[in-house]
Design goal:
Two copies of one chain form a homodimer. Chain A is an alpha/beta fold and 290 residues long. The first copy, chain A, is 55% helix and 14% strand. In chain A, helix 8 links the parallel strand 8 and strand 9.
Chain lengths: 290, 290
């Protein structure tokens, strides 16, 4: 049975444009948020607002969650009045949040007990990708759940990869964030070294762009590092959170990730220096010891 | 006076296609190499072969060097029968090698005493960029020397940036290599983490490609890390050499670059494990402790 009635919880920078893309793709979209103001633009586009996750979930074939951290997912799904109270057997949960693989697996196991499938389906591509519907989605869970979810995923993303079993989507996302944050560390050190030897950061950026380091990251973050304009963007507290997931996963897997450890320390220092809501490019200030 | 007679020393992976592009652009190209076989293909295309750097330099308006390390540049320029012995006052040396900023400045100062200008002009873009004539060139030296050299640089590169005074090109290149090597460390850790949790490296690569980590580096090195095919490519010993330049420059400038230090340790371990001539993607073996 195709999924047509979709609930969305988490109407932030990512969730709101994703819900709008689901509406445009023709799905019947329900929403829940603590603040009515967050729902209003979507209701204006045709979504139905609900007072609680449970009430919303009761009328849905699939529920999509796009929240921040492990505790948020657990609360939305299993808290009082949570999604799990409303879901019918046979329905599907798709969590687009970035949380730890271990928490994703635990949530999936708990939902399975009430015959609800879950995909951990974190995304990459940022706000621009969410608005354009061009996100990269890394999904973990049963193959048949992934196929059922495909029309929904296609409405919000362009690159859809079924990575493996429950938790595998979060593992791939952790690997993705690890690569991003260590690359940012390297970029910040490059600006630091060049600046210390008197090279203008804008000129450095011009020279980096033409060579092997050319990348989407350099295009987005390079100008911010060069100019010092650290308005988010991606708030550094989110990458910092992701790095904790990375190091937790590394600890559980018994692997040594020294680059991730270094980047985590840089991001930690930025948090303490008041940079939680600055763009992650602001780590250049920590590396340079501004 | 425009530069028309150009000598090239260092006919390796980079230097040979660069000399060929200079020939195609209409310059009168002279070459010197210890092995006649290295010169033969260029002689067949119209270059003139010389027995010594000094003999070659005597007939040139500009001499281009494309060798490996600081000692090679010093030997070629100032050794017995070296370039400096043959150069006329008013001529120009362009060094496309990647060496330390300090050595580049010292060479430039020594040439200045015989009224020869020098540009440190390291390149980024690899063998493919050298063949296509699309290298990114980061040049340090006098602005008028950069303008004199522009027709030569345009014959081998597409992105030409005058970074600043003597040594500034090497500073930018060091920053570039720092960003590359730390990014490689992050990519290797991403494959390590995902693999340790059972995610197939090819599937991880597919999911990374669609998101924020999309980059030229990922396109070139990702498949090698995923498959384990570590045929060079860029031999890891060259990146390792570059990292020593980075750390030396950092020490002189008094900046802390922990990401570069970690990457250096990984590359050092790969050298000791017999991976000097493997592609740099082989660092994934060290990170994973294969």
């Amino acid at each position: 049975m195709p999924l047509s009635r979709v609930g969305v919880i988490g109407l932030g920078v990512m969730g709101r444009p994703m819900a709008a893309n689901l509406l445009r793709a023709g799905f019947r979209v329900s929403v829940h948020a603590r603040r009515a103001a967050a729902m209003a633009p979507l209701v204006a586009e045709g979504a139905t607002a609900f007072d609680s996750p449970a009430a919303m979930a009761a009328g849905c074939d699939a529920v999509i969650t796009v929240v921040t951290a492990d505790a948020d997912v657990q609360q939305v799904l299993f808290g009082a009045g949570g999604v799990a109270e409303g879901l019918a057997p046979g329905s599907l949960v798709i969590d687009h949040s970035t949380i730890s693989p271990a928490t994703a697996r635990a949530c999936a196991a708990r939902l399975a007990r009430q015959s609800v499938q879950m995909l951990d389906a974190p995304v990459s591509g940022g706000e621009a990708g969410a608005i354009a519907g061009s996100l990269s989605i890394m999904a973990g869970g049963d193959a048949d759940a992934f196929e059922r979810a495909r029309p929904l995923l296609q409405a919000v993303g362009r690159t859809l990869v079924h990575v493996g079993d429950c938790g595998a989507g979060q593992v791939a996302k952790a690997a993705n964030q690890l690569a991003i944050c260590v690359t940012l560390q390297g970029m910040a050190e490059a600006f630091c070294l060049a600046g210390a030897q008197g090279v203008d950061p804008q000129v450095l950026l011009d020279s980096l762009r033409g060579g092997t380091t050319a990348s989407r990251m350099l295009e987005v973050m390079g100008p911010k590092m060069a100019s010092g304009d650290a308005r988010a963007g991606v708030e550094s507290r989110l990458h910092w959170k992701d790095l904790r997931i990375v190091l937790d996963a590394a600890r559980r897997a018994g692997v040594a990730l020294p680059g991730a450890a270094i980047a985590t320390q840089t991001f930690s220092a930025l948090q303490k220096a008041g940079g939680e809501r600055l763009d992650s490019s602001a780590i250049v200030r920590i590396v340079r010891r501004d």
